Amino acid sequence: MQENISVTDSYSTGNAAQAMLEKLLQIYDVKTLVAQLNGVGENHWSAAILKRALANDSAWHRLSEKEFAHLQTLLPKPPAHHPHYAFRFIDLFAGIGGIRRGFESIGGQCVFTSEWNKHAVRTYKANHYCDPATHHFNEDIRDITLSHKEGVSG
């Protein structure tokens, strides 16, 4: 087994590794990520090791550059026309993103998504790039419409 090699010693890369792992956990379960990391073959990973590294904000100390690069490939890529979009749209009751796929194929940029089903959310996040600077993901439309609040008519 190779010695654990830090991706880098910079604070910003540590934050990037942590943010990437947190984003991946919105898509994949711990077991899947552990299998992916072990598949790279650089270090031994278990669910306990990954959870501990995440809880201690120390995953970037343990991730090798090859593991880091492999994990990045698991995230969806921006569309080819990013960041030059023809129009913006929102994706309500999104499911796994069929409407989004169509709008993106003609140059659209999704800026808001709402979907409540946890399995659909994972699939959606695995398939569609969401720019953290311009896209908001909402899981319960009632948080936007406020229809679950007393005194607000629906």
Would you spell out the secondary-structure blueprint of this structure?
Layout: H1 11-27, H2 30-40, H3 47-55, H4 59-62, H5 65-72, E1 87-92, H6 98-105, E2 108-114, H7 118-127, E3 136-138, H8 142-145
Parallel strand pairs: 1-2, 2-3
Protein name: DNA-cytosine methyltransferase
InterPro entries: C5_MeTfrase (IPR001525), DNA_meth_N (IPR040743), SAM-dependent_MTases_sf (IPR029063)
Enzyme class: transferase
Question: Which runs of at least 5 residues are low in confidence (pLDDT < 50)?
Answer: 1-11
Q: Which class do the helix and strand fractions yield? A: mainly alpha
Total discrete domains: 2
User: What is the overall shape?
Assistant: globular
Can you name the CATH architecture of the largest domain? Answer: Orthogonal Bundle
C-alpha-based Rg, rounded = 18 Å
CATH fold-level name of the largest domain: 434 Repressor (Amino-terminal Domain)
Main β-sheet: number of strands, strand sense, barrel status? 3 strands, parallel
Could you tell me the number of beta strands? 3
**Share of helical residues:** 40-55%
Strand content: 5-15%
Distance between the termini: 60 Å
Strand order of the largest sheet: 1-2-3
Task: Give the helix tally.
Answer: 8
**CATH top level class name of the largest domain:** Mainly Alpha
Mean pLDDT: 88
What letter string, H or E per element, gives the SSE order? HHHHHEHEHEH
Overview of the molecule:
- Keywords: Methyltransferase, Restriction system, Transferase.
- Residues 19-75 form the DNA methylase N-terminal domain.
- One of its GO terms (molecular function) is DNA (cytosine-5-)-methyltransferase activity.
- The protein has helices spanning 11-27, 30-40, 47-55, 59-62, 65-72, 98-105, 118-127, 142-145; strands spanning 87-92, 108-114, 136-138.
- The chain has 154 residues and is mainly alpha-helical.
- It folds into 2 domains: 11-72, 434 Repressor (Amino-terminal Domain) (Orthogonal Bundle); 87-145.
- It has a 3-stranded parallel sheet with strand order 1-2-3, with helices on one face.
- α2 crosses α5 (65-72).
- The longest helix is centred in the N-terminal third of the chain and has 17 residues, at 11-27.
- The chain is globular and about 55 Å long.
- The model is unreliable at 1-11 (pLDDT under 50).
